[in-house]
Every structure is written in C-alpha cells, then in structure tokens.
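Dear colleagues,

As part of the handover before I leave the project, I'm documenting each prediction I ran so the next person doesn't have to rerun anything. This entry is a single chain, and its sequence is reproduced below.
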Amino acid sequence: MDADEQVVNFSSSLGGYIPVNFTVPTNAVLGATRMRVSINYGTPTGPCGMYTNGETEDYTVVISPPLSPILYERTENRNDSNRMSIFPNPSSQEIHFITDETLEGVVCIRVYSTEGKMLKEKYTEDRSLYIGNLPEGYYLVSLSKQDKVYTSKFILKK
C-alpha cells in the first residue's frame, strides 16, 4: 500500500455496524476501482496480513464527478423567499418558469441529471426552455441571475 492510498484509519470499541465517512481524494481516477476495507479487534490492520479477530473485504466502487457547485450553493444558502414554479410539470417539450421576483434581462438556465451532471445551459431573456431532446426522466433545473439562484425539479415524460 502506498502512503497516499489510505483514506481512513481509526480505532473504535464499537461492535457491529460502524459508519465511516471519508472524502474521496482529489486525484482519484474517475470510473470503477477497488477499495479494500480491513478491520481487526485489538490491533491495527494492514492491507494484507494475518490476524485472528478481523476481516478484509474488497469492494468495487465507482468514482464519479462531484455534483455541480450550483446545486450545493442553493442547498446551503437556502432562502425561502427564492421560489420558482415550473409548468407544465411533467412536460414533454418545453418548460416555463415563474419566480417570486421579477428578473429582468438575461438569466442562466441549467439542467442537471439526478447525478449532478450538467446537461444543458442557456443564457436567455426567455423564461422557458426546450427539453424535448432529453430522454424521459427526472431533472434538476437552476435559473440564476447575479446572486439570485432558483432551483427546482421537473419530470420529462414523452
């Protein structure tokens, strides 16, 4: 094991299920990779070796790109005065937006998959967006202008 491969190392007296959160290293390669989890009672374990009270398990994990920062920004800085309605919802061709505030001029409309991948981006003065070229499914949409960000969900059904 290389020194930069270990992402978690801790000691616990807990038994059974032990939840562990960790940050995926920034240099992790996207796609499927292997993750080894070792646990041993009483003494620390290495990635390989022998021990009497523990186990080692290998998992396949998929490293995917992080969610778009705009999604995090809206969640963390949530302000209930920033409300947006989408209609029709579900839709098959085009969606329209109404916000609690009048936004004049050009806005940025972005559509994201449920995995956080940005699929469409449009700078426009219109408050509508053609979505007929996307596959059926659930989507997240953001409409932004300067420091105002509105997010909502819509369903595309053909």
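Residues 68-79 have pLDDT under 50 and may be disordered. The radius of gyration is 23 Å.

All the best with the project,
I.
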